[in-house]
């Protein structure tokens, strides 16, 4: 009697049943062992941050329950992927190892080590398309070079891409009978914070594929029709909030695009500016990965080489004030407090807070990128890198360095009633909207009426906007020479 054909299915950041190519490929086997390997000491510099670990904990739990409903399970293991995957294959008598690609160049050494180890054991390896819409070779310029301008990237994409969604399996191959004794529990992975700073996360987030699909359907039925205007107003729920679900592969971007096509028509024929804008935002993530794959040095170094010698400065006092939401500029402070409490920050405010750190405080963009990496539940190396380099003016298709967000007028323009500031800086909530984004200019009687004593209840600005702007412009002129 022949032994059943068995495969090890390596689950990475693809915690979903729909549109999961490796999972679907595993249906060709009689027995499949879905496994997630938590590497305690990963070799990559950008190890998963604390907020992302919180999300991963709950996402793994949701995915494990989904697998159980289809007759399978998720084996949790701690260790080095290339060693543990081969060990699992040997234990279960598996002939193949399957996974979905991650597209993170920093993980390339792990894959190379796995390929060598599997080859030495005569194991078949099958790598499927992961959480991107196209492989990088499909989105190159006519001369074979990568795009650095988003608009051109977008135009190429809508010419070559056709959404192709795949339904989830109705049943999965059974796990082999022989239990693997070195499994871990979810608690063993120690992903939740040691201190209860994540309490606010539970108010805002529900990780898992089912929540991601529901959120997508609701947004594309209601919110997307106001997206172009609402997305810039931080006091509104004007964005899809899908970014952490995308980051952990709970939903594939092709399912979002397929839903858009089914509802509004082909991507190249869209007419509603709201739908077009949202589709472009989905593609911005793809563009960020395009850049990361072609320029793998950018998480730590600027794409524009002239910025390698930019005169950034270290100021621990200013940086700490920024992280704590104590800069004296309410739009910045509201954003940083929202980040700490919810693990997320409104995109418009991300740009404002990043610009303030880099251009008003003169702090290196990499310091801000690392803080966001640790505190965002949607921390994605490609998007985080591209966002910070865009703001710093040193990345692809970047905002010019001389574009400096005014932290006063930005708040007044996009939150004219001061609702966002009042929500996250409650000490200012009784101040009239006219003064809420510049409380230091408020008349003394207004401050007294609002119960605010500047310097005690809320800080004075740690830097002067005009002076900081002029300094930043002067530094930019120096690197242009």
General description of the model:
- By secondary structure, this protein is mainly α.
- It has three domains: 6-130, HUPs (Rossmann fold); 132-164 and 209-294, Serine Threonine Protein Phosphatase 5, Tetratricopeptide repeat (Alpha Horseshoe); 305-475, DNA Cyclobutane Dipyrimidine Photolyase, subunit A, domain 3 (Orthogonal Bundle), CATH 1.10.579.
- It is 45% helix and 6% strand.
- It is built from 21 helices and five strands.
- The chain has helices spanning 21-25, 50-69, 81-92, 108-120, 150-160, 201-204, 209-221, 227-230, 243-247, 253-264, 273-294, 316-324, 330-342, 347-360, 365-375, 381-392, 409-414, 419-424, 433-436, 444-449, 465-480; strands spanning 6-11, 31-38, 75-78, 96-100, 124-128.
- A five-stranded parallel β-sheet has the order 3-2-1-4-5.
- Strand 1 (6-11), helix 1 and strand 2 form a beta-alpha-beta unit.
- Helix 11 packs across helix 16 and helix 13 crosses helix 14.
- The chain is globular.
- The protein starts with 5 loop residues before the first strand and ends with a helix.
- 42% of the residues are buried.
């Amino acid at each position: 009697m022949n032994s059943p054909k068995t495969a090890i299915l390596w689950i990475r950041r693809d915690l979903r049943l729909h549109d999961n190519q490796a999972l679907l490929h595993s249906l060709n086997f009689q027995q499949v062992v879905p496994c997630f390997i938590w590497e305690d000491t990963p070799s990559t510099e950008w190890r998963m941050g604390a907020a992302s670990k919180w999300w991963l904990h709950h996402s793994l739990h949701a995915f494990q329950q989904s697998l159980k409903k289809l007759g399978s399970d998720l084996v949790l293991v701690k260790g080095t992927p290339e060693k543990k995957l081969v060990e699992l294959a040997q234990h279960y008598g598996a002939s193949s190892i399957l996974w979905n690609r991650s597209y993170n160049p920093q993980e390339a050494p792990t894959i190379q080590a796995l390929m060598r180890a599997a080859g030495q054991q005569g194991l078949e390896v099958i790598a499927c398309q992961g959480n991107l819409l196209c492989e990088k070779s499909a989105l190159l310029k006519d001369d074979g070079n990568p795009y650095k301008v988003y608009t051109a990237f977008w135009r190429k994409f809508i010419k070559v891409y056709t959404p192709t969604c795949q339904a989830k399996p109705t049943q999965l191959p059974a796990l082999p009978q022989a239990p693997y004794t070195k499994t871990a529990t979810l608690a063993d992975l120690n992903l939740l914070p040691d201190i209860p700073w994540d309490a606010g996360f539970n108010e805002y987030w529900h990780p898992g594929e089912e929540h991601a699909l529901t959120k997508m359907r609701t947004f594309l039925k209601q919110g997307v029709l106001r997206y172009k205007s609402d997305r810039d107003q931080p006091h509104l729920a004007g964005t899809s909030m899908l970014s952490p679900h995308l980051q952990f592969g709970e939903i594939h971007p092709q399912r979002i695009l397929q839903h858009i096509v089914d509802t509004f028509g082909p991507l190249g024929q869209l007419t509603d500016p709201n739908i077009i804008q949202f589709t472009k935002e989905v593609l911005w993530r793809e563009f960020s990965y395009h850049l990361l794959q072609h320029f793998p040095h950018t998480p730590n170094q600027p794409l524009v080489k002239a910025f390698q010698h930019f005169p950034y400065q270290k100021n621990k006092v200013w940086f700490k004030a920024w992280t704590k939401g104590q800069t004296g500029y309410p739009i910045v402070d509201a954003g940083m407090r929202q980040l700490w409490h919810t693990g997320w920050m409104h995109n418009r405010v991300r740009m404002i807070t990043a610009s303030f750190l880099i251009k008003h405080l003169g702090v290196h963009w990499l310091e801000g990128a690392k803080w966001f990496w640790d505190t965002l539940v949607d921390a994605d190396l490609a998007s985080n890198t591209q966002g910070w380099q865009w703001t710093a003016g040193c990345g692809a298709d970047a905002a010019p360095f001389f574009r400096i967000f005014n932290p006063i007028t930005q708040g007044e323009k996009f939150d004219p009633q001061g609702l966002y500031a009042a929500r996250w800086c409650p000490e200012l909530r009784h101040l009239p909207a006219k003064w809420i984004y510049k409380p230091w200019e408020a008349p003394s009687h207004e401050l007294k009426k609002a119960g605010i004593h500047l310097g005690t209840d809320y800080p004075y600005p740690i830097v002067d906007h005009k002076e900081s702007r002029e300094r930043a412009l002067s530094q930019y002129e120096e690197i242009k020479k």
